[in-house]
Each structure stands twice: as structure tokens, then as C-alpha cells.
Amino acid sequence: MKKIKLLNQTQLQKVYEEAKRRTEKALCGNKLILPSMLQITYMQYRDTFNFMLGLPQNCILLKELRKTQYIDNTNIDKIKFLMIREHFLSMREFACCTVNEVKSYDPKISGLYGEKLTLMELEFMKAKKYNGNILFDIYIPDGNGKYSQIDSLFVCSKGIFVIESKNYYGSIYGNENDYKWRGIGETKRHYEWEFYNPLKQNSSHINAIHYHLRGIPCFSLVVFPESCNLNQVFTKSKDIYVINRYAMLNVFSKVFNSSPDVLDDYMIKNVTDYISNFCDADEKIIKSHHNNINDNITRNFNDIDDFENFGDNN
To answer: What is the mean pLDDT of residues 23-43?
Structure first.
């Protein structure tokens, strides 16, 4: 498994600016995406067509592009955001992932690949000026003689985003208080599976964080691929979000616009440095954690048309 190397803010801005440049080129002057050859030049058509050919069939951008040909004031911000995001993530994925990871059906490899995609989405948040520090693959003592393994964290002025990645596909069914959730997949055949409620899983991660860092607000995010149907997942508690990956921007926007600052730059650094001590766990800690694993409303934040804003697309 190829290990991801996170970029610093300067590097992220360079990738982001390149994503914006490619988007402006593909948008053909903000008028047309993939209409007739008569209305755009061959080079514009070729570049845009090749870009779209490389998109996953279920990605949110392709779904939105299928709904409209023309770009106007009602959809320009949404389309720009989705295209910049897709360019940004594709560049990062090319640098950080192998073909085997992308195409693997091995649950372990697929899960780790999903965690990488979530980290790239967090990098995209930083590139859009949501300032904070990203930490990942954390094994933190929970105070009960065990370890809690956290996929990724984002430490910022609002507190800590605690993120659990689930690289599942199909339709997900469950509510906040269920012990088990259910997935239903439809490919060549119908299949179903059950898995431990990821909100409860993430709650244990937050409890472990609060054992060490009491009083810091934590926001629980459970993130699924954008092709995953989450319409039958229900939550009521504040600061709990079950979302498709592309909707992380909407959650960040909500939290940054509505929550008070609780950490200054000095405190953010101290919290980051403290939690960093629990990254890069040795094999003994990882084995101990695996031996102790217990397989034991709400607004729809995934609706792209209801996003509060799409950040700075200029």
C-alpha cells in the first residue's frame, strides 16, 4: 500500500490553482460543457471530453453534468466547485495511489484506499482556506487499557473533526442508536451485509480523545463514497454527520460559520503535537487494537443544491 504524503499549504495552493486553471479551460468560457462541436473549438471539446471520460460513473460531478448542458448564474458556482474538486482530487490520487489500490476488491485494501480519498478531501478543505492540521492513522489509548484507532482528524479553531471512513457501496440503512447498520448492494447480483454502527464507533474515538483532551469540541463525521445512497440513514444529535465524501465542504462550511472559535493557533499546534505522539503506532499496539475490536430530522447534507456555499471559486 503506497503511503500518502500530505502536502503543506503552499503545495496545496499550487495544486488548487492548477485545478482552477483546468476547470476554466474545460468550462469553455462559462457557457457550455459538452454540447455540439459547432459552438466550441476542437481543443476545448477534446480536453473536456477526455476529462469526462476519466470520471467514475457514479461521481457527483458526472451526475450534475448529465442534468444540464448550459451553465448560467443558477448553477455556475456548483459546477465550478465540482470541477475544481474533481481536478484537484484526480491530481492527488495520481500522486498518492496505485492502480492496484483503485481497482482492488480486497476489503482491507479498499478500506485503506477510502481513507486516502478522505485525506485528499481534507487537503481540498485546506486548499479552500479552511485552516487546520490533518492527522491520520492514530492509535490513542482510551483509558481502559485499550487503543482506539482513528482514521483521520482535522484540528482547527472550532475544535476537532473526528472522521471515520467507510468505503462501502450500495444503499446504507441505519439510525443513530442502532447497534448494527445494513448495506444492500446491487451489481450483477443482490447482496446484503451488516456492520457495526460507525457513529457508535466514532463515539468511542471521541471518548478516547476526551480522555486526553477534555473540553475540546469534537465533530463526528462518518464519510461514505459519493456513489453510496444514504437516504435511509437517520441522525438527530448535534455535531453528528453521516455524509458522502463530497459533502465534507458543506459540513465544514456549517461548522466554521456557526461554531465559536475555541482554539487559537498556539493551542492548535499544542493539540496537534500531542495527538501526533499516537501516530505511526508500532506492530504491538496495532495487534493489541485488532485483538480488542468489538464487532460488537436531520438535514440532508448530501444535497449538492442545498450547499450553503461553494467557497472561493474565483
So the answer is: 52
